[in-house]
């Protein structure tokens, strides 16, 4: 058999359990039994004996037998009805139900539980990012824009920056969970006609039946007006938030790949690990690259989800079926696998303080050009004038450094000799001297991030304590 | 000049104003002035004369002159700085700012205002869908699944079904608006270093400055840890909700195109309108088709937004720039154009009660097969057994109808003659008789939808009253 | 274990074999052996005994053992090297190779073979479309534009129309196959440095080695300048053509779903099949809907492929790895599954001539309005004038029909009474009379399509004879 | 008016001319005139006077007047017919035509001409890449995989690597151009019924008419079986190749952004250019970033194109219309703008040989580990054993370098002291000494690339000589 590569190699057991074929069949049978019990309690003629017979066999899952039945009926739910009936010796399930009364609700339950697992991973991730941000709060780092040296920041702040993106995504995830509405027991075209037939038109009983079923599912929100299916834009909403949640980690990992290129940091290297089958010296950002790969995968499933939304014909059909069989589990597997990988990176990553300090020293005069400009401005020089003068000298310095015309960054000398800036050599040296501590609001920003994350850790202590499994 | 086709042909003036080049330049200048005033109030040496000079020229927008400057600097913001300085005769704007301190905030303001316009259109749309759902609450309609006759519903319920999808999207839109955080005044790499330089390291003053600027923008949420840019997953979130909002209308329009094919409804036809330049008799669902086209367009911009998310290198760069110049306005134009079109459809659409009734009459025996099955089940027949018997006769009836072997749907006769169902001809005739009123919970569902929408109409009366412009 | 749902439920054995884990490991081992043999023949010190030892164990595939090794090395290829060495007792494979010297070529072999399987299915599909087009060449059908009646065509022509789209895609597939270049043996960064080291700098020997390996693979084209990886835009090209090939079938299936809604045709219904678990009478276009679902899936994999293209950093890395593990097999499974489904539809579909004829009769006066206009034009009436007059009457007729004001389509009467058209009642009746045979060039177009397809059937007789497996 | 930002800021005049509203209207009018002339020659009663009257006014394009008409008809083609008739005083255009007989062919002409412009840019780009590859053929460079030092290559080879990707895309572009088929004059549903009416059923005349019109367009291939529209998978094919063509340049630009981060190369800096409005020293890869942005944009249009393919209902409708109005021109603008930007980068980029040499010196012992391994293997050491030994020492060396435990890369010493490798210090020094010239097949690979490109330059000398306009 060809395995699902995402589930087999990357995602965790807690996520895989939600989506396994066997697990799903048991979920369905529990659902049918819940419906039967409620129908019986509300007056339908279903014997306790029948219910007991179904309960007895509900865990006897024989996927091959069901598939054999499906090859005849060409209808997957019909095959599963017949199998469950066959096992129990009764025909009492699925009364007044259409297939989608079963499958929509069960699949929504899978989605909902998947979201809860993801929330756990998000909180665990935020905790680690907070810890790393605090740990490296004092390491002054050359911030880069356009991938070249810009101004000083701290390594802690850089981590908090990507962390806050994930924190923002967490809020959206909470909104999606809170607003996640289940389709409920609406019948073939959404009018509940068959349940009403069964209960002789008693709308109150049908409402009560649906309430009980929704309670069985454990999801608080519920659609009122649907057809055979719930709107597929809800799937789009789910896959959108999954993609959004991958974005902060993905940006962090791209940055860590860049830092590895400058040797300022790395994702770490486990004992026994091999970087390259050819080049023994290689220690590669392969886990970070994998995180970026997961992001690309999620964007593909986002395209699938978008392809289903807005494409409902009348009260619905199964043109979404094969897509959702692939997209829903696989999107959850991909994001779960991403978090497992990313948590491992956060646990194992290294920062190389010596290399970081050397980098900052090399670029320091450049990192401080805005401060020079601000000081000139405070002395009354026009902002754009100061900009022009500094640019002139900075560009020349860079050119000389690259050709080897100068060995050391002598921008300060050049600025000191240019009267247009109104700054003395002493003043410039002062600016430079304080430069490797000039990280502005970085520390207070990290503190803010820590505070926000700690609130979540208190709210979800178990999630915060989660540790990833061993990754491949 | 080549116009933006979405803005020119489809979107409304209120949306176009937000994104016009001239309007944006004025927004930027107002922003710069707000910064100068706050900086002055907090102690920076900026003269009232300078501020007055800037204010005087702020509406003198000469796009061509700015473009000429940009061709030299190859830097759009630098060009706009120079232009505004040139007009005013001062060099006092943009102190301590990086370009993104300006552009991120101004673009976020455009996005935010765009979201507010969209909210207005959503509410206006919901009102019309409510009205249509109420208006046609009594029209019994053949609900279709897999595009073929299934069970009865009402036309009102069908509209409420797509309406509730939009209503659900409305909640997400409100969440996005409420959580929409502006980047603020964070400096070149996010540490506020230059503002701190300007204010001699006084963090409280810098915080106060930022508070004033954010207040000027009118957006309540704010990022704390950012680099040069705010996280692009926020753009993804925005374009996702835009795409989600288009989904209910898109599904409705696909369904209306299907109904036009059966002549049960149409999008209407304006006086003077031409359906086809070749075929004079044609009255086409061209506006519905256009709505579906807008959905495809939005999915393309969603792919662009997804392409930017998770791709931040270090503290940021402009690899997102050209994408956002296209994607952000065009996604808003597309959705705004979609709502203008869709509102027009809702205003002009027709339902053909006679055709609808004829369709229901033709399919009635089929529409009631589940009821027949439920009645048999209540008489003790096994559910799957009943299903099998009815299927046998229904399939044979369809075949005979299509070949012409029978003229009229005689399924009832066949069922009456089959003892396995335990239903007499009289009982079956009873079922059929009540069939064209058997719409289950459809009415109460529509009532629920109406109630929810009315709450919004009360909350946003002006929006609810909005009427679309004339569409092409 | 969680299975790959596409492989398990939809794609055929011939496609699954290409992508199975075990099959791939054997492909890799054969590749290593081919390299060793060539290296030995060109002078490297590799003993026949070693090669024999590897050959003896090459089919001993123990996936679990390899996974256990990978959990240590965190490097999949290193794990497979160690496993194969362990089995054979030698260390002679992978000399001078980097992992990608192995995996790129083997994966390209999988892709290439996948394309050949797809070509077979395309030819088989075209044959069936040709047969159906010929079979129904005489059935006059109401062509629809905007989903409403337009002009007459034939059912055969409608099929040929979608068939010609697939035929056009076939040409692109042939181009892709012919231009598909394999990466070859290029070493860690593409310079072949290690092979050159092994062969003491003898470039001719290294070229010969590569030639032999490429010959072993059976692919004629080869890259010259690559890094560690071949350009990922080649994957994009492959997934693009897969998506394109799904498009004609997808449009056909949407149209068949529409026709089922009007009962003019259906995808058929197998003995024992169940349409709906709720509604016994349903015979649904579930296979057509599935084909449309596969198209949505492919568009998701296309987004993944596009996400990898243009994203190569330097000489390459593995950020593409997890994506390609999912996207490449799954895109092939999806398209293969689509063709299996679509071939089944083509075999089982039905057309209902009586219903088709009744539809044409109902719309006939409308279908002929362009002919009326042409005849008026030939009599000297201005084209736009004639258009206006006919539109006026046609729109009124439609309105009267829908309200029940008239029972029968009396457009002809209205036109006959309007002098502006310069056509007598007799002339109009003549036009109408020939209307149900007025299918223009439809027959000659079908003939053209048949001829083109027959050429392919002669070229690929085995493929043309292919029949689908039993679908779920 | 809101301009199309892609056309206004990025694409060239030759591309903009193809897609301008005015230009398109003239194309349409020329097309109508060509049809009239052919119809007249084949016997239709159209006077020379009428044709002359149309020809006289064909360049009088009043977009506003047409828009005013469209606001009444809600049909764009009908509005343009009425306008042209109004200007000429005749009603002889569009006889026997449906709108799509006009617009499909004219839009395909635009696409086709767009492809020819792109081909020109591709050839111009390949020429420059060839020149750069040759120019820097001798610069030994540290090739990077996973963004860290791997083995030596040359800068020329790196450029040729991305160049060969574009060259491969060029072949696909040629295939697409050669196979690009125009819809032709097929009438409202593809059966040519109205032309056959006009010509009294004379099929030969209708064929001849179509031949003349296709000849007028200058496109050699032609569809035979179509409905109202040509298959939209052809648009997908076009946008796919546009996206593919952007991929090599996009990867090159990502790599140049990475090189700028290590100061080994840069995209250059024009006189007067400003890198940052805040930081005067910045010289950013803003044009490279823009190229990457264009790639993201194209992937969005690819999603739109994919959204249209496979979605044809019956003989077609206009659900694709608004999408194609946006996607087709904008995809061409984006790719054209990308080439303009990329050509500028190729013209202005710099390589810093001193920095490159210093980098190679620093990493040299690592770059040669595979050679060490190969030499050990040749001395009989097991491949995996040698790998293990070298990895051990290399990992330790890296760690010591990063912590500062050692100052200089002393891997060679460590290897020399380890007996397991069977290599003397002298032998190791030999390997290292030749290391900075060990670029394997790099030079012959570049030569191969040059040769292939020169063939194209000879074939298309004018295109090869094309120089980009001044970019913003």
UniProtKB/TrEMBL annotation, chains A, B, C, D:
Pathway annotation from the record: Purine metabolism; AMP biosynthesis via de novo pathway; AMP from IMP: step 2/2; Purine metabolism; IMP biosynthesis via de novo pathway; 5-amino-1-(5-phospho-D-ribosyl)imidazole-4-carboxamide from 5-amino-1-(5-phospho-D-ribosyl)imidazole-4-carboxylate: step 2/2
MF term (GO), any: lyase activity
SMART domains reported in the protein's UniProt record: ADSL_C
Residues spanning the signal sequence: none
InterPro entries per record: AdenyloSucc_lyase_C, Fumarate_lyase_CS, Fumarate_lyase_fam, Fumarate_lyase_N, L-Aspartase-like, Pur_lyase
Organism domain of life: Bacteria
Record field: catalytic activity: N(6)-(1,2-dicarboxyethyl)-AMP = fumarate + AMP; (2S)-2-[5-amino-1-(5-phospho-beta-D-ribosyl)imidazole-4-carboxamido]succinate = 5-amino-1-(5-phospho-beta-D-ribosyl)imidazole-4-carboxamide + fumarate
Coiled coil stretches, renumbered: none
One Pfam family matching this protein: Lyase_1
Keywords on record: Lyase, Purine biosynthesis
Domain Adenylosuccinate lyase C-terminal positions: 364-450
EC number: 4.3.2.2
Matching Gene3D superfamilies: 1.10.275.60, Fumarase/aspartase (C-terminal domain), Fumarase/aspartase (Central domain)
Family designation: Belongs to the lyase 1 family. Adenylosuccinate lyase subfamily.
Name this protein carries in UniProt: Adenylosuccinate lyase
Gene (UniProt): purB
